[in-house]
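Re: [ENG-882] Designed sequences occasionally contain unexpected residues at chain ends

Forwarding the minimal case from QA. Structure tokens:
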């Protein structure tokens, strides 16, 4: 009996606490919060006895909320401030949202048996009017940004056009305005390779290094291109100036290694100093690795050849026609083929040494082939330079 009484008291206390929360919001003028709390309660069962207090609270909160909002909108309109257009639009939209939350709950019957009164107003025309005024102000703001003529202003204008698109996707000429802002707000960077060495750089390597699409560096506000477009005004250029290509002679050397290692050859049982088997807690004999010292002779033949590519990565500001940064670009690519023979117990060999067995001499690659093979290393080094030292620092890449 005490347990049932305690549960009933807890439920009563919870109900009182909930209504107190709504009443508190009403007292401090947070009418929309009072409406939200009441609506949430009534949505769970408007015909329950526990819901009755919320009906009267909702009726009171809605009436006061409506008067509060209408006065706020009137004041915003009288201020004649262009920045208020968005506030007025948001207020009308919120008022409609509140009405739409309450409408499905109607009719609501109060504790005295009377139907609660909710005087709804059709704000649709005023909402559309407020939205159009807000869009007009946004268009004016975007136009001001476009007239300033700087990259960051064009990007701000683009963001404003995106906001307009959310409000009215079919806004007249919006697509063209967005395209213009995006085009003018984008940094266009031209990439060019020059060869100041005595070696011929294969066309495939030049195309690979200057094709920045494979670098995945392009973003919404930055475009790299290795082909000049006569209709594009480029802001910067990146020059890959190769100054050194050195190829080492082909080398073949032989190395003989005498190996001697302790190697696990099996398992045995552990014994104590007296020669007795050592057992675990279950009485089983404990196994340990059995090792032997093995030896042998590994004769390796090593073919090697390397190429060194050196140069400069230069950044030019094309608007000022001035080189603004220089960074060294260096890459070494090594060709190596190792093969060998072995005398002795092969258990002494590690995995790397085993790989050399059964191999044979192969033709040395040409210098041109090594240059092409070095392209992946060159690209990686070049990409690291550009990422570590971006040519444009202030680009917003979130779009």
């Amino acid at each position: 009996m005490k347990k049932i009484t305690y549960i009933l008291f807890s439920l009563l206390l919870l109900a009182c606490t909930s209504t107190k929360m709504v009443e508190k919001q009403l007292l401090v003028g947070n009418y929309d919060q009072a409406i939200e709390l009441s609506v949430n309660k009534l949505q769970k069962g408007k015909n329950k006895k526990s819901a009755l207090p919320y009906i009267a609270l909702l009726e009171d909160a809605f009436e006061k909320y409506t008067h509060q909002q209408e006065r706020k909108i009137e004041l915003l309109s009288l201020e004649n401030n262009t920045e208020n257009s968005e506030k007025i639009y948001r207020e009308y939209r919120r008022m409609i949202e509140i009405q739409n939350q309450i409408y499905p709950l109607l009719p609501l019957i109060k504790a005295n048996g009377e139907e609660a009164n909710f005087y709804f107003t059709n704000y649709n025309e005023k909402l559309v009017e407020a939205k159009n005024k807000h869009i007009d102000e946004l268009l004016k703001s975007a136009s001001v940004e476009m007239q300033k003529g700087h990259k960051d202003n064009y990007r701000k204008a683009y963001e404003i056009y995106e906001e307009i698109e959310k409000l009215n996707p079919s806004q007249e000429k919006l697509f063209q305005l967005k395209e213009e802002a995006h085009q003018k707000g984008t940094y266009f960077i031209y990439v060019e390779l020059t060869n100041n060495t005595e070696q011929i750089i294969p066309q495939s390597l030049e195309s690979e290094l200057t094709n920045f699409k494979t670098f995945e560096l392009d973003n919404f506000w930055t475009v790299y291109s290795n082909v000049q477009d006569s209709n594009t005004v480029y802001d910067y250029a990146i020059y890959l100036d190769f100054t050194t290509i050195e190829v080492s002679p082909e080398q073949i050397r032989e190395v003989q290694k005498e190996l001697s290692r302790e190697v696990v050859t099996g398992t045995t049982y552990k014994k104590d100093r007296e020669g007795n088997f050592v057992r675990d807690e279950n009485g089983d004999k404990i196994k340990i690795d059995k090792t032997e010292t093995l030896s042998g002779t590994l004769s390796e033949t090593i073919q090697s050849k390397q190429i060194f590519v050196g140069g400069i990565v230069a950044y030019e500001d094309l608007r000022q026609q001035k080189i603004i940064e220089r960074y060294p670009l260096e890459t070494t690519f090594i060709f190596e083929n190792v093969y060998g023979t072995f005398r002795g117990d092969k258990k002494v060999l590690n995995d790397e040494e085993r790989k050399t067995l059964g191999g044979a001499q192969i033709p040395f690659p040409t210098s041109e082939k090594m240059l092409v093979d070095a392209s992946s290393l060159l690209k990686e080094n070049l990409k690291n330079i550009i990422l570590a030292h971006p040519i444009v620092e202030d680009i917003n890449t979130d779009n």
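QA comment: On inspection the terminal residues look reasonable. DSSP finds eleven helices and six strands in the chain. Proposing we downgrade this to a documentation issue.
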